[in-house]
Write a structure and sequence with these properties.
elongated; mainly alpha; single chain; 45 helices
Length: 939
Amino acid sequence: MVERLIKKIFDVREGEFKVSLWMLAYIFLVIAVLLIIKPTVNALFLSELGVEQLPFAFLLVAVTAVATSYFYSKAVSKYPLKKVIEITLISSIIIMIGLGILLSFEVVSGVLLYFFYIWVAIYAVLSASQFWVLANLVFNIREAKRLFGFIGSGAIIGGIFGGYLTSILAPIIGNENLMFVAALLLFFCIPLLRNIWNIRVKKNGSVKKHKSATNLSEPPLKLILKSKHLTYIASIVAVSVVVAKLVDYLFSDFASSSFTDADELTAFFAFWFSTFNLLSLIIQLFFTHRIVGIWGVGFSLLLLPIGIFGGSILFLMLPELSAVVVIKAMDGVLKQSIHKSASELLTLPLPFELKNKTKSFIDVVVDSLATGIAGCLLIFVVRGLDLPSFYIGILIIALVCLWLYFIYKVRIEYYKTFRNNLEVLTDSYKKTKKVTDTKVSVVAGMRTVFKKGTEEQILFMLDKLMEINDKRFADDVELLLEHPSNKVKLSAIQNLYFLNSKSMTAEVSELLKIDDRELTIATLAYILSFAHKDKSFIFDAYLEHSNERIATAALYCLARAAKNNYSLKQRYSLLDRISLALKTIASDQKDLPYVASVIEILGVANLPIFHNRLVAFLQHENEEIVKTTIKAIGTATDPEMVQHIIPFLAEKAFRPTVLEAFNVYGQQILPILKNHVAERRQPLSVLRFIPAAMQSFHSKEAVHQLLGILNHEDLTVRLEVVRALSAIRATHPQLKFNKYKVVSVIFDECKLHHQTLSAMHTQIIISYRNRNKSKKEIGDAERDARTSLLELLERRLDSGLERIFKLLGLRYQQKDVAIAYEGLLSQKQEAQHNAIEFLDNLLTGELKRRLLPIIEESALDISSEEELQKIKHKIPTELECFKLLLQGNDLKIKLAVLYLIAQQKESRYLHIVAKYLDDPDPKIKSFAQAAHQSITSVG
């Protein structure tokens, strides 16, 4: 009963309960012992030496910690962690027994009090640090996220137990006997440690290998300084410890002034320490998971410093013990609950070896050095200048501001470290290595390409030059007219059309002699650009040219020039000339190049009288003629005609030509394409390629129109829309996306994913049940039909997950989402865990609440019956499953369901099939009729 309740509350899964309980018991005993010895030693120290000696004790703690850290580091490197922890426990037990004996003879004073105070301070941080290092060995990242709250509650319960036990027993049995009780409790940690080590660490392997660019053989301090992440963590620890010591000093100062008797002071400390732990436990059990889980690490880390800040303001206004208790309450309650959980999460993205090497250094040495700094502040600033307690409050406020700054910085590094860790685990860093070239002047580089580059390089550079239109390159481009490649000549003369407006180059006449239609048209266009006022002499010279290629090129230029010039159209009888060309084609007197040139003329002229003739060429038997017609229709920019080329998107051979035609048409085509998708005017084979065509514009209007069809009912089309938007975001991140629309669609995708997973869960369970049934009970046809349905559902889950992550890339930083998606798809379990953790901290609010369960389920092996038990949602019956799938818009899945029903031949599905007997889709109708006939034939 208790075990079931704990598993339900803390999400403790099968195989985790025993080791989790042992870990909880271990930290319970460690902290309970601390809360017995700390109040006792503190009370003895203050009673015998007074609060004035506390700063010196702080300094000695720092010096001792630095001195012993060297030996501890050597021990960790030389011996297994288990042995180091055991030696620490045994040493502590011996010291406690020794303290109890000395107290019995009442010989504890002076130097001995300093020794025991320093030992308690180091024990407090070292024992807890060793426990969390052990926890990192025992649990992986995902287990740690779920179980650290449960295990951490053991520390708080131990604090409560130890504090109240001390408060009750101190007046009855005395401080000396309390030490023997503490030693006995700590002794039980040794068998617990050995059991934990044998059942998890030894079984799983104690060394977890990670790729890392860091040299882990270096001293801990160097490793910390090399990592911004660790540096900021150490800074937060240092500042928080200094603040805590200043708060301790205030608390001890005001308390010792109010209570002069040692036993009364011990009881006071024990009561408040236990009360703080009780409140901390309540927060840990009912609030920590919600706050850290929903608001994230950054916000959670802010609560403690903000609480102390508020308490300090109260103290400045009301400098009394009650105000100091408020400050201490903020420190005591939040530090061991919300702040502790958030602090442990800060190290999650770091490789284990790095954590193991540096965590104890930060927890012990940095903590102790900060204690020494606090001592210096109290000795040389507060006491040296004889400052009243009021100034300690001001000093706390100043340090809290510094603390908040480090939290801001570590939050940035936290995400960076997680992302870098994911890149290493998925080998993404290899794909994103930057190649640095020697710095060369852009102008000099372009001129070098024009002189010595290959044809492809020159064409690429000429395309770029067309965009920037830099007249400094006019002479270089003119030289390219002598290049052996006609493509280079064509691109060069097209550039000169814009670059050279002063004088016509002499090589133009030579270009007209080359048998290349496109080059001839470009050359004539270049010649016409110099006839600013009267172009008639050029048309007179070339329209009747003896060379047919030049004459048709001149007609093309005339059609383009006369598009908005009625007088030019009439003067040269453009309609008659085009009609004559069409008659010549109809009489089969001309070859294909001539036909192609006439089609281009029809497109550029865009005369309604010839539209039907132009569209008719789309049925031509020659593929090149069809391509030329598609381009010509794009040039015509007529909304009626452009609809005739959209169906060609379904054919791979024509698709690039159609996209080229769309780009020539311009962005006015985007609403037309969007309406074709929204109103399903084309078959699915065409619709699925329209989003990619819209994407090619990479514009604000393209984003707007694509968002308009983001909710398309067909999942294949929706995936293509999402991919198109994602591609635009990747290349043009400056474009704005409607984030509210995106999030709304993500929520729809979450619902669909849950439905698909539920249906798949049902089918897998039925498949398991059917394994042991004979072929007479379950035929091969039914097994194959169910297998086909399962494969379709699995593909739908995969495409659904892709849609979700592509959509997330529109809401968050695309690179972050991409690396998380890659980690989730990785075969490495650790990469999957890191990806989930990264997303857990990246996502926020309702989006996080709905998405994270889906992301976690996607990492499960759904073919495993054991893993399926971890999925927490209602499992529908097969009847409910079929109804759910048939209500959807996935044609293939509908057909697979109807086919499976036909193979099962069960009458309970008859009423479902009846709904689809007259379905408008002929395929669904046919499959429904077959299923209906199969069922009724049995009955």
